[in-house]
Design a protein that fits this description.
Elements: H1 2-44, H2 49-63, H3 67-80, H4 85-97, H5 101-114, H6 119-144, H7 147-161, H8 166-178, H9 182-195, H10 200-212, H11 216-229, H12 234-258, H13 262-275, H14 280-296, H15 300-313, H16 318-330, H17 334-347, H18 352-369, H19 373-377, H20 385-399, H21 408-425, H22 428-435, E1 462-464, E2 480-482
Helix pairs in contact: 1-2, 2-3, 3-4, 4-5, 5-6, 6-7, 7-8, 8-9, 8-10, 9-10, 10-11, 10-12, 11-12, 12-13, 13-14, 14-15, 14-16, 15-16, 16-17, 16-18, 17-18, 20-21
Organism: Nyssa sinensis
Subcellular location: Endoplasmic reticulum lumen
Main location: endoplasmic reticulum
Length: 483
């Protein structure tokens, strides 16, 4: 009997414990319902309540561009109530802005199933389809090289309806780089990196823009930051090591020039230019450096070509004009040299070195236009006075008008020229002045010591030397003549 009572007591205790545990579980579930269900119940009942707060939170997240947080809130709301139509619409809108077009389209269609005929949602769905088509078109135009039209599609369609589309933003940066709008590319990548400072593609493209502006130190910092995040990123590695190689080859060229190793400098400048022909901001200086070295080597024709390349990039580069002027002097293009040096002097009027070089070029041009008496007599500039007399006598006999009856006019002109040449070169003082480049162009025509007067005006022409022609008279007694 005692055992039976003890057993009943034990059973009563277990039952009480079970009852207490059951009551605890029920209260816990009820508490959870009180905490978690009111927002959903409120939304389903059409009360603003927590649904309004949730949409306000989503709106704030979008304003600060925390799209993932906004989507998390909407995903939770839809998971709690699959029939929460407004949440589908908001989610569709965010996905459209991010250009997640397929997911966005599904959400718009889900909303329209619940709220058929909603004109605002139908309009946004139409905008989505326009943006999706425009993004595809822009990418195709970029591939085909139609940069400006591609930019139009990105700016006027895609980023209007999908302002948070990273894919479109990065494509726009690539388009700006292709259009050589490097400042624009830097600005656009700045916006992207402000939202995500570790975006590798933005770092690479921004570094590329600085590279093409020849801001190489800043470009290197962008490439280095990207490589610290991903050491195996192929585009960043290519850009980084390509720039390092270019700077190394450029420095080698400049060092060799400074050391007087001019031929090595020429090879280094040419090698640096081959590394990236599409880098004008840097190549302009390489072309100029190469031109200067070639001028020093006396290779005028090649120097003209290199300086012209520099001026094709920057037509206002004064030093390139000066160096090309020097190169043209080497090639005896006197007029071209004067033209370049005049232009340089106009751009830099205070530079006395340019003025001196210009004066030298103008003097060379003037000398080039005067008659070369040495050439007329067929003697070298080092010819002795006896060589000059001998040459003159031979030519005077050959072109004496009385001996050229059939071509008298030509002979008279030749004879005047020969006589003028001898008038200058046969006189030691006049020859010295001529050799110095003094302006004695008409000295041989002045009727000086040799008694020479020009033909013309019907006046008689006489030419005589004391005792006849140098070395004796003409054969046949032509000690002097008149006609």
């Amino acid at each position: 009997m005692m055992n039976l009572l003890r057993f009943a007591s034990v059973m009563d205790l277990a039952a009480w414990r079970g009852l207490v545990f059951t009551i605890f579980i029920l209260n816990f579930v009820f508490a959870c319902q009180l905490l978690l269900l009111p927002p959903l119940v409120s939304a389903l009942d059409g009360k603003p309540g927590d649904a309004a707060e949730m949409f306000e939170r989503v709106s704030q997240s979008i304003k600060v561009k925390r799209y993932s947080e906004a989507l998390d809130d909407l995903n939770a709301a839809i998971e709690g109530d699959p029939n929460f139509s407004e949440a589908y619409w908001h989610r569709a809108s965010i996905l459209r802005q991010l250009c997640r077009y397929e997911d966005s389209e599904k959400n718009y269609k889900k909303f329209l199933e619940m709220k058929a005929g909603n004109s605002a949602a139908e309009k946004e769905l139409s905008q989505l389809l326009q943006a999706q088509s425009a993004l595809e078109t822009a990418a195709n135009l970029f591939d085909s090289g139609d940069i400006l039209k591609s930019l139009d599609y990105i700016d006027k369609v895609v980023l209007v309806f999908s302002p948070a589309c990273l894919k479109a933003k990065l494509l726009k940066v690539r388009l700006l780089l292709s259009a050589k709008d490097y400042s624009g590319a830097i600005a656009e990548t700045g916006y992207i990196l402000k939202e995500d400072e570790n975006n590798l593609e933005a770092l690479q493209l921004r570094g590329r823009a600085y590279y093409y502006l020849a801001d190489h130190d800043i470009a290197l910092r962008h490439f280095q930051k990207g490589l610290r995040l991903d050491p195996e990123h192929s585009e960043l590695k290519k850009a980084y090591f390509g720039l390092k190689n270019l700077l190394k080859k450029t420095k080698s060229a400049e060092d060799n020039e400074n050391k007087g190793k001019l031929r090595l400098a020429v090879e280094d400048f040419k090698a640096a230019l081959l590394l990236d022909p599409n880098h004008p901001a840097h190549n302009v200086h390489l072309h100029l450096g190469l031109c200067k070295v070639l001028v020093k080597l006396g290779k005028g024709k090649d120097a003209v070509s290199s300086c012209t390349e520099a001026l094709n990039i920057d037509g206002e580069l004064v030093e390139a004009l000066v160096q090309r002027g020097e190169a043209k002097l080497l090639t005896e293009d006197w007029e071209g040299a004067v033209e370049d040096l005049k232009s340089a002097a106009e751009k830099s009027p205070q530079d006395m070195n340019i003025r001196e070089t210009l004066m030298r070029a103008e003097r060379s041009l003037k000398l080039s236009k005067r008659k070369d008496w040495y050439k007329i007599l067929g003697v070298s500039k080092t010819a002795s006075i006896s060589d000059i007399k001998r040459a003159y006598k031979k030519l005077a006999l050959q072109w004496h008008p009385d001996k050229n009856v059939d071509n008298r006019e030509e002979a008279e002109a030749k004879f005047r020229e020969i006589a003028a040449a001898y008038e200058v070169l046969g006189d030691e003082e006049k020859r010295t002045r001529f050799d110095r480049g003094e302006d004695i162009e008409d000295m041989g025509m002045a009727g000086g010591g040799g008694g020479y007067n020009s033909f013309g005006g019907g006046q008689p022409f006489t030419f005589h030397f004391e005792g006849g022609f140098p070395g004796g008279g003409f054969p046949g007694g032509f000690g002097g003549f008149q006609f």
